[in-house]
Amino acid sequence: MTRAAIYVRVSTTRQAENDPSLPDQIGQCRTYCERQGWEVVEVFSEPGASALDDDRPSFQEMIFKAKRADHPFDRVVVHSLSRFSRDALHSELYVRELAKAGVKLISITQDVGHDGSGDFLRKMLNVFDEHQSRENAKHTHRAMCENARQGFWNGSHAPFGYRVEVKEKRGNKEKKVLVVDETEAPIVRKIFALASGHEGRPVGVKAIASHLNERGVFRRGRRFSTGGVHELLSSTTYYGVHYFNRRDSRNGKPRPPSQWVTLQVPAIIDEPTFNAVRGLLQSRNPKRMPPRVANGPTFLAGVARCGYCGAALIQNTGKGGAYRYYCCSRKLKEGVTACRGFRMPMDRLDEIVVGEVAKRVLEPIRLGEMLQAYVRAGSEREDQNRERLANLRHGHKEVEAAIARLFELVENGLMDAEDPALRERLIGLKLRRDELAKDASDLHRHIASGAPQITPDKIGKVAVLLREKLRYGPPELRQAYARLVMDDVSVTDEEIRISGSKSVLARCAAADAMPAAPAVLSFVQEWRARQDSNL
User: Fold this and answer.
1) What is the pTM of this model?
2) Using an 8 Å Cβ cutoff, are 170 and 152 in contact?
3) How far apart are CA 481 and CA 459, in angstroms?
């Protein structure tokens, strides 16, 4: 008896769930096989798969089994040729593969035969099916873009923090919009607060995911991952601007921004917070800052340099890791001819630097003397503050104009909107714009209040707090505050030269509270639970 395999398919998951198309196709194909006296040995069902793509699991399983040496079936029965494929090239290739394996493709509604005329007719039908499918996709895509322009949501799944709500009905079609989900929105705000440092020092994506998972906070029943947190922190939807049509739904490739459709949605956070977090993510990008510098345990990482050649000092170990040293990176990589270099125990250099900074800079009386010009010039700086306020406002206008010029270059076709340098430049300008706006606002409030910017009491508190953090804080915070206080530590065999900025110390003393540490750990480091060989 001739053995047959039935293949059925629908294009969308919604059709598979609601439309009786799959059961109808199976029933009609079974009836046809019974009339022909064929035995149905297997049914391959493909719910929600486009026929323009041959990457369909059930379809590929059917082709694989058809070509097996034991020949499990002799016919592939479909309702119509469009169920098999809507791509003329793919269809012909797979029909030939089946033919080589001795398997014939049978359409129960399009009996084209298997001679030369039948092959010609089948190929023509495949061309028409492909054209019709692409035309339908074009019209559907145009309708979805217009739906987004009118402010409505396309699709059923909403981003985390939102839910879909039917706003109105037009005939049989429901027009949906995004609304804030009050059970998920606090989690989104929490994630941005952790990333931006509103609740302490800024936290990296892996630490955020660990923080939420350890407390049983999940993303719609699934655990948070680093990729999911990064995607959430990078989405403009959360400050109220969603872009539809950013990617091609068929191949996943990005579309140019000129084809994006802007959709205004309710905001969960404000734009300055989003820009600040985006700037932090950019600053920790491994392409710009090596992870060993941003996340390593070395206290003076990114600060200490060789006084002979200017290269960074990196960690080197001795006796199987029992001892740690600071060494010139150039000498280690290029040899003794590149730099004479030096070698110093890590703990010794750290202790010398912290001790000298604490004694010469962060002793309250000494720090007060260093900043006495700021204290004495409180009233004299009134005019300077007003001039600085004008400069800040002028700089804010210039940044706004620079952003507008970038958009104008894109609109005039002088710059590619997909250029990564353009995107990075735009993010930097937006972050600079928000910083200038915040500085101008703070300075305006200071001028209006007339309160002194720096007082001896504040200087004393800052000195004590910084000394405590540098000496006894957790390793990652000690490293962060070292970068805050020191710009450069140049080391030779004869001397250690430490440099920093008085203005940074002045800003710390002028603030009501210590600012968050500037460095952010994007990786979570933990001790191994077992004392095995891989320490």
Assistant:
1) 0.52
2) no
3) 16
